[in-house]
Amino acid sequence: MFIDELVKAIKEKRSNVVVGLDPRIESIPEVVKGRYFNQYGKTLKAVAEAILEFNKEIIDNVCDVVAAVKPQIAFYEQYGLEGLDAYIKTCKYAKEKGLLIIGDIKRGDIGTTSKAYANAHLGNVDIEGVEHETFAVDSITVNPYLGGDTLEEFIEDINEFGKGMFVLVKTSNPGSGQLQDLVVEGKRIYEVVAEMVDNLSQKTLGTCGYSSVGAVVAATYPEQAKTLRKSMPKSYFLVPGYGAQGASADDIVDCFNEDGLGAVINSSRGIIFAYKKSEKGYTQEKYGEAARKEALDMRDAINKALESNGKCYW
Ligand SMILES: O=c1ccn([C@@H]2O[C@H](COP(=O)(O)O)[C@@H](O)[C@H]2O)c(=O)[nH]1
């Protein structure tokens, strides 16, 4: 089951870090993309090849330091089929390196359409009795805007294929409060979504005691995260907003339960493009080493903050 594998990876690696694989071609080092532009011109194929090479180097450098990777599908999808091919190959490579994969796809639609999303990203597609895996990652992010019935559609595949999902509860962007913080019948919308997640979490408990239905709860809103931690005690939090969006290790402590578990913290740009921090002595030629160093620093900063608050598991 996804959640048991995630907690196992966290404990083995002593790391609550997730690295976001959000390749932006403008930030991929010239030493990588230049070769593909020379070979294929400024084409979708060149970009897809550059992304894949870049991701593999990042994965090689962080695979023993992070609990999971989180490719954001938008950065691949924008390059059409070539981009999606790079997404699939990236996920396959990460899997070979023993990493769990959280596909940041933020899907959600009416029930039957959600089921198609679930087939694509968690389970299998059935072609007249012949089953095929298409994207098949370990866990995904989903959008709850269409209601609880649409979330239920993912549960079947979560249970059948041992997968997981993280439901958007409180997002990291500056405008997240516009809808999520509205008060309806005495409750914030994000609190209502948290209740939905908590109900679903009971149906998907792993042997570790946590559920394969988790929540996206942002590091940029630590006060709300503290309340939400109590509303969804069995759900793991996927926490974006660390690093490039301004949150620090102190901001994520309340995302964790007293047992020192309960959250994984994502950083994308801050890790994969760390080579740009030349003041730290990083270079574009050694962008993988720079990512590793930043991932290690992030892991240690989080562990230290948890330890200072009596919440470190190890
Ligand atoms: O509330 C949310 C939900 C998802 N994200 C995603 O996380 C990463 C953050 O990237 P950084 O470079 O570390 O800022 C990105 O894929 C977002 O789409 C989020 O930021 N906030």
UniProtKB/TrEMBL annotation:
Give the E.C. number(s). 4.1.1.23
What is the main EC category here?
A: lyase
Signal peptide position in this chain?
Answer: none
Which GO biological process entries does UniProt record here? 'de novo' pyrimidine nucleobase biosynthetic process; 'de novo' UMP biosynthetic process
**Which CDD domains does this UniProt record tie to the protein?**
OMP_decarboxylase_like
Reaction catalysed? Answer: orotidine 5'-phosphate + H(+) = UMP + CO2
Q: Which Pfam families match?
A: OMPdecase
Q: Which residues form the Orotidine 5'-phosphate decarboxylase domain?
A: 16-282
Active site per UniProt: K106
Q: In which pathway does it act?
A: Pyrimidine metabolism; UMP biosynthesis via de novo pathway; UMP from orotate: step 2/2
User: NCBIfam families in the record, alphabetically?
Assistant: pyrF_sub2
Among HAMAP family, the record links this protein to: OMPdecase_type2
Please identify the protein, giving its name as recorded. Orotidine 5'-phosphate decarboxylase
UniProt lists the gene as pyrF
